């Protein structure tokens, strides 16, 4: 099967019609019309076999997660997703794998009516680069900058589930495996909280490192209560107590949103979020991120999450 037949068979069917998509797969480039008064929000992420996913990972899970991590970035900006592109490098045209990949991509894309509008297909070591496009009302995107002293730090959902699943491997219970392989981008929450939050980002590399990015961008620090971190029942049942904090703040792959809110907006944000929203700490003038007990004792913790080149 040549490159063009492969595109026709597996990827053209993922180009669902949307009013914003004026031209999809098949020409030299795609055309996207933005809703009036909005800005285009663009993000890209690469997944490399053997680094971001196991070479024997289910192809459908790879497809889902490749799209999910991109949509999580759009969610963090408060954008509504429109479309995506797929640059695919493959060692060979393995049709079973391609079919699985396309099915996983489209399962998540269907939930948000997203169109695949283009891409590139080349031969080489297995990797995928997706670019996602979203719309956000002009000037209203949620940024990492904007957090102020006294704002409360909040997170959606629960933390540590994916990191624990990764650690437990095949022994991980299904609820945790789902969180690792099929993260749900928090798109509705991001759009609902865009107008309420002072700053926000998505948690991909672990709360400690990601919150430090937000604090740096905002010129502030944060103090987080370890005892307030939201924990799923599956995590509580399966995580060794001594590993809770490390998994929940340094583990990564949570794909929850971390937001800062002026205290008077927390109630409205909780009502609008559509997911559990938990206050875990507050923004301080003093820079840096500290994790502490309910009594205020500071807990020792390495200051950053996963990094590629260290
Ligand atoms: P060009 O040589 O002009 O870059 P290609 O032959 O690479 O065009 O691609 C032909 C069409 O197929 C383009 O519309 C391109 O966006 C689309 N396409 C190529 N690879 C993929 C892919 N993996 N997923 C979706 N669309 C793809
Ligand atoms: Mg090309």
Q: Return Rg in Å.
A: 20 Å
Strand order of the largest sheet: 8-10-7-11-9-12
Low-pLDDT parts are none
Count every beta strand, where a strand is a DSSP E run of 2 or more residues: 12
Subunit organisation of the chains: single chain
How many angstroms does the end-to-end distance come to? 41 Å
Can you walk through the features of this model?
It is built from 10 helices and 12 strands. The chain has 310 residues and is of the alpha+beta class. The strands form 3 sheets. The protein has a 6-stranded mixed β-sheet. Strands 3-6-4-5 form a 4-stranded mixed β-sheet. Strand 1 and strand 2 (31-32) form a beta hairpin. Helix 2 packs parallel to helix 3 and helix 4 crosses helix 5 (174-181). The radius of gyration is 20 Å and the shape is globular. The mean pLDDT is 95. Bound molecules: adenosine-5'-diphosphate and magnesium ion. The site of adenosine-5'-diphosphate (ADP) has 13 residues, from helix 1, strand 4 and strand 5.
